[in-house]
Design goal:
This protein is of the alpha/beta class. Among the domains are: 216 residues, Rossmann fold; 86 residues, 2-Layer Sandwich (formyl-coa transferase, domain 3). Helices cover 33% and strands 14% of the residues. The strands form seven sheets. It has a seven-stranded mixed sheet, sandwiched between helices. The chain has a seven-stranded mixed sheet with strand order 13-20-19-18-15-16-17. The longest helix has 23 residues.
């Protein structure tokens, strides 16, 4: 087996042209990682055993995939790739695969393929054998640590991560509920793509292992820095399950999502629904559950368009509840050409989640048939793309980033850059600081309360702080001058704000012609929804992430988390591609990374299944498409806590079912032949649930986990997210690092859901900056001396405290 030179390398204009990637992975995470790279122009060669990747036969709805055909999800993830077949039992095939890897710059690896699990394809072996190679390994828990070889599924990993109860998702009278679909796999794939491209930016010719953990990816994106919050505030973020109000409501003709992310939005909402008196009781903003019947009735009396129009007029975050059936019909998505037809099967696919003005992404080409590109022996492999010249360094060393973002999505993106070596300057206004500084319930009677926000502290380590009032003409001009010292600007204002301030890409590139600017609007820079306010929950509503989450007999539940960090991940991916283009050509560019486009990509299965098979995916509580049985089961009440202990159990294979039978002591009910195969277990899921619920209720969670894991059954304890550092796997991989802060004190901070073999730890090198801490240092670079700085401070244009507040204790 050898591979002919690619006919799909593009015309040379794509950012990753010349990078060859050997894909040894199976499943969604590896498939999405390599799709991102293929979209960027990389020559992705998918290496499969003679039986093919199981993803070829996958359908979340269980649709029948005919002989010789491939599933619609595979056709989406496999676009623009090439396929070769390697028989791992044939030594010559393995030898030729090793030659192919020698021609590559990166290998993407996961368990599940007999090719990947051949001993010479082990990640550490590949790193030792191939100079200059990046090997990105994707596993549930990481390659190292006590859990490295434990069985796991998406569902059990969510439980261990704290993500199932991370924001207390679910009704108080029921079990908590996981984020529907296979969200962890998509997020892990995005992180793996970032890790691969970041590694390729490192100077030197040493090979590198990028070890990506789905557990850590889920902790990073499905919980909201609960450990730092707990360390700083002294209590968990939230323990009691709740349903956000307004949240999801049923209008006369469909479902609609409304949300209030700020106190002002709650005041406006109360006025909109005809109850301005609600605004007189500040407690109602924190606990609105008693108002739900009134709000539900108000929504039910109106159509979806009427609710959305009113909410937009009052500047209340809003969106229709999107699913596979209606996603492609909305005027906004139609006008922005959000979806395209798959070149293999014609199914609707979301387009890549970023648009880059300076370079072209590769137009999708039909996913390969199994072994379609296995060529005759003798064709020479293409040379591997070389690493950047120079000494080994952090991936973003020397990159200066002006971070004009706030809350979670934008700072999440810039924080990733800061952890890997970029100089990131967080720009705020002394009159209107980053709103996340005030998240955490710190009373404004506390000295320097704006420095005590634990979430701000967690999102902004390694950054510097610059404060400038952008609404003042002198302040806006200062920013333009400072942009001349920067490589990158990232912003997540609504489009109208940047336009009004005159800080568009066209304006700023005058100060820095090769500037790369990343804009992160909620819904894009154009289209009918362009100016809608966007919070995580609204993006989840508008993309399909909400519709798959929740109990089947009740309204869907907003995940209330993933919309923001997922947007940050995809903004970084767009930036990395733009930087690759600039490194080759010297040309900057504008990256539009709309939050909703990022969410539509990781919710792609819904649109794909409906357009390919006519099936609308529905929420199923804690069950799921991959495993049967799959559910949460309540354990015995602990002696020292509330009766709310849960374990996640998920059986993906018949072998795991037999292991479960053994662990349970082979009870008579479990020996029914009807349960021997997955289809029967799906039909009899209620029976299995009842039996497992009784078995689990008699045992503490720790005993359930020990018994089942030892037997080889995927299981996870539903942990409170602030307990993440107590888990052996987090500790063994050094995911948390301790850092001191002059106001917050000492706390533990999460790092990245991947380790880099060439990156020194700790990653957190400095605490989050105090407001305006670096004003003098940074403004001196654009000619502002001490007397001028004092004048600007006196005018309120810059400052190191909130306007009108003392800076010291």
């Amino acid at each position: 087996m050898t591979v002919a030179p690619s006919d799909a390398a593009g015309d040379g204009s794509s950012p990753l042209t010349g990078l060859r990637v050997v894909d040894l992975s199976t499943g969604i995470a590896g498939g999405y990682c390599t799709k991102v790279l293929a979209d960027g122009g990389a020559d992705v060669i998918k290496v499969e055993p003679p039986s093919g990747d199981p993803l070829r036969r996958w359908s979340a709805s269980g649709a029948d995939i005919g002989p010789g055909e491939d599933g619609a999800l595979f056709n989406f993830l496999g676009a623009s790739k090439r396929s070769v077949v390697v028989d791992p039992t044939v030594d010559d095939d393995i030898g030729l695969l090793q030659d192919l890897i020698t021609s590559a710059g990166a290998v993407i690896w996961s368990r599940g393929s007999p090719v990947a699990e051949h001993q010479v394809m082990a990640p550490h072996h590949l790193v030792d054998a191939h100079a200059g190679l990046t090997v990105t390994a994707i596993t549930p828990f990481g390659l190292e640590g006590p859990w490295a070889d434990r069985p796991a599924t998406e569902f059990t990993v969510q439980a261990w991560s704290g993500g199932i109860v991370g924001l207390a998702r679910g009704h108080p009278d029921r079990a908590p509920v996981f984020v529907g679909g296979q969200i962890g796999a998509w997020l892990t794939g995005a992180f793996a793509a970032i890790g691969t491209l970041a590694s390729r930016r490192r100077g030197g010719d040493a090979a590198e292992l990028v070890d990506v953990s789905m557990l850590e990816a889920s902790a990073a994106c499905l919980t909201y820095h609960p450990v730092t919050y707990h360390d700083c505030i002294g209590r968990p973020m939230r323990r009691r399950r709740f349903v956000p109000t307004p949240g999801v409501g049923a209008a006369r003709d469909g479902l609609v999502g409304l949300g209030c992310g700020t106190g002002q939005q709650w005041l406006d909402f109360a006025t909109m629904v005809g109850h301005p008196e609600w605004s007189e009781d500040p407690k109602l903003f924190l606990d609105r559950t008693g108002l739900a019947p009134t709000i539900d009735s108000w929504i039910a009396d109106r159509t979806v368009p009427e609710v959305l129009e009113l909410a937009s007029a009052f500047r209340i975050p809003n969106a229709p509840i999107v699913d596979g059936a209606n996603a492609t019909t909305f005027e906004h998505f139609v006008g922005r050409d959000t979806f395209t037809a798959n070149p293999r099967d014609g199914a609707a696919n979301p387009r890549p989640p970023y648009r880059i003005t300076s370079t072209a992404l590769r137009p999708p080409e039909a996913a390969p048939r199994l072994g379609e590109h296995t060529a005759d022996v003798g064709n020479p492999p293409a040379p591997a793309a070389e690493r950047a010249a120079g000494m080994r360094r952090s991936p973003f060393a020397g990159l200066r980033v002006l971070d004009m973002t706030g809350y979670w999505a934008g700072p999440f993106a810039s924080h990733l850059l800061a952890l890997l070596g970029a100089e990131v300057i967080h720009l705020e206004s002394p009159k209107r600081p980053d709103g996340v500084r005030l998240v955490g319930g710190v009373p404004q009677t506390e000295p320097q309360y704006w420095e005590r926000g634990p979430i701000f502290g967690a999102l902004n380590t390694n950054k510097k702080s610059l404060t400038i009032d952008l609404t003042d003409a002198r302040g806006a001009e200062l920013v333009r001058r400072f942009v001349g010292t920067c490589d990158v600007v990232i912003e997540n204002y609504t489009p109208r704000v940047i336009d009004q301030l005159g800080l568009t890409y066209e304006s700023l590139r005058g100060a820095r012609p090769d500037l790369v600017m990343v804009r992160m609007p909620g819904f894009g820079l154009d289209g009918p929804w362009r100016d809608l306010p966007a919070f995580a929950f609204v993006i989840e509503d508008a993309s399909g992430l909400t519709t798959l989450t929740g109990y089947p007999d009740r309204l869907p539940l907003e995940p209330y988390c993933v919309g923001d960090p997922n947007a940050g991940l995809h903004a970084v991916l767009g930036l990395l591609l733009a930087l690759e283009h600039r490194d080759r050509t010297g040309e900057g560019g504008l990256v539009e990374a709309a939050m909703v486009d990022a969410a539509l990509n990781i919710a792609a299965e819904q649109v794909i299944e409906q357009s390919a098979y006519g099936e609308v995916l529905e929420r199923v509580g804690n069950r799921g498409p991959v495993a049967a049985p799959q559910n949460l089961y309540q354990g015995a009440a602990p002696d020292d806590g509330p009766d709310d202990s849960w374990v996640a159990i998920a059986v993906e294979t018949d072998e795991q079912w037999r292991s479960l039978q053994t662990a349970l002591g082979v009870p008579e009910w479990a020996t029914d032949d009807a349960l021997a195969h997955a289809s029967g277990r799906v039909r009899h899921h209620d029976l299995i649930d009842a039996a497992l619920a009784a078995w689990c209720r008699a045992r503490p969670a720790a005993e359930i986990v020990a018994t089942l894991w030892e037997a080889g059954v995927p299981v996870g304890e539903v942990v409170q997210p602030h307990r993440q550092p107590d888990l052996d796997q987090f500790a063994a991989r050094g995911y948390f690092e301790e850092l001191d802060h002059p106001v917050l004190g000492s706390a533990r901070y999460g790092t990245l859901p991947m380790t880099f073999s060439l990156e020194a730890r700790p990653l957190h090198r400095r605490h989050a900056p105090l407001l305006g801490e670096h004003n003098a240092e940074l403004l001196a670079e654009v000619g502002i001396d001490a007397s001028q700085l004092a004048e600007l401070e006196a005018a309120g244009i810059v400052g190191n405290d909130l306007a009108g507040e003392p800076s010291g204790p």
